[in-house]
Amino acid sequence: IRDRLRRAVSFPSQMADAATESAPTGTASHIPGGAARSALPEDLHAWMLLLGVTVVAGIWSWARVEGALMADVVEYLERARAFVRGEELVDARMIRAAGITVLHAPVLWIAGVLGVDEGPWILRYAACIHVAITALFVVATVHLGRALAAAAGRDGARCRATGWLAGGCALTSPTLAQYAAIPMTDIAASGALALGMVHALHGPATARAGAAAGAWLGLAVLCAFKTIPLVAITIAVGLVTRVALDGLRPTLRFAGAGFAALSALAVIQCTFDLVTYGTFGIGLWRYLCINFGPTFGTFLYERGIFVDLGQRIYFYATSLYDDSS
């Protein structure tokens, strides 16, 4: 297991070495950085093809959007408008992550400053943003496929092929094609989660890598609260892997930078809750209580551990659920 993990960590250098060994004598691969430059055209063409298909799927999706699906676009734009103006939402009991709403906020703020009316262009802008999110998901899938192939001990060429296969398979999903141009938060959250896994489980245990892992995992939570269990599992597995490979001190630097980045994204979510719901962190708190409170309270009660506390947690969580339904 340790050998496989070390091969996964050294995945980028393995790919460069493989490209250098396979290149003829006298080519650009024998100069520093030549391997990456010589491999660029092939990768560039593949990326262009993959992302081109993604854009076509997004255009097709936008052309077919109507009815209730269009209402989802309008809902997020309305939330972004309220956030920019500092207004509380009319239905403050609805629990929503801040991700896509905050993403729309800068453009709506600029439009307000410039006095631009929110005409039909705003819907086309939103479609472009959601197509870009879908493209991010496809790119993240490619990188995650490569990382998993490296962890399985595959060489550089096979790692690249596995990544392209993973990205191509993602594009065959009818759900992805249907929601390529409308705000399905699961797509954005999945892309961020995949990139967070890549940085958390592969590569050197540096502060920069830890910050990247924490930022992507935090962005996943910011896009969809349902990723919280997966983020927790990724953090646990990543820390155990890092300690086994790199030792305690580098892992502490990695973890410190990661938790700092993750906390910064959590503050953004809590600030969004303050502006839109009137209470700092209320959306995130309600989600955690509603989804984990009843189970935890029942566990304490049935095991005879802090029975009174278990009852209080259970009834508090269920009351929040009744208020939100």
Q: What would you say this structure looks like, in words?
A:
With about 325 residues, the protein is mainly alpha-helical. It has 14 helices and no strands. It has helices at about 1-10, 10-20, 35-65, 70-85, 100-115, 120-150, 155-170, 175-180, 185-200, 205-225, 230-245, 250-275, 280-300, 305-325. Mean pLDDT is about 80; it is low at about 10-40.
Radius of gyration: 23 Å
SSE arrangement, N to C: HHHHHHHHHHHHHH
Low-confidence stretches: 8-41
Mean pLDDT across all residues, rounded?
A: 79
Strand percent estimate: under 5%
End-to-end Cα distance, whole Å, is 47 Å
**What is the number of beta strands?**
0
Silhouette? globular
Helix count, DSSP H or I runs of 4 or more residues: 14
Query: What does the largest sheet look like?
Result: none
Pairing-aware structural class of the strands and helices? mainly alpha
| Residues in helix, % | over 70%
Topology:
Blueprint: H1 2-9, H2 11-22, H3 34-64, H4 68-85, H5 99-114, H6 121-151, H7 156-171, H8 174-178, H9 185-201, H10 207-223, H11 228-246, H12 248-277, H13 282-302, H14 307-324
Which labels suit this protein?
325 residues, mainly alpha, 14 helices, globular
Quick take:
Helices cover 80% and strands 0% of the residues. It is an all-alpha fold.
